Amino acid sequence: MLRLVDARIRMSDCRVNGWVLDGFPQNETQVNLLRSMRIKPSHVILFEQAQDESIRRLSNRRLDPRTGIVYNVEINPPKNEVVSNNLIKRQEDSETIVRKRYMAF
Length: 105
Prior knowledge:
By secondary structure, the chain is mainly alpha-helical.
């Protein structure tokens, strides 16, 4: 994964326009790997929200298996009823697993 990130941000459009890493790095090991590759952002933005809000949002995620689009059934449901009826809940989005992941971070 790191090689892909490295190759992409070294492309000319990223050098000219900049780049955003969303949800990456996720742990100290990934941070250290970025450092070792001399990948250093000029700005870091951290959005904070309450634990209960994070858990609620994550456990309401659903995946459209046909397109790969992720919806939130509470705040961003699909407008199409056929799509809505075919959404699946990924195992990692169960409240129990979300809570465990939240505690790990």
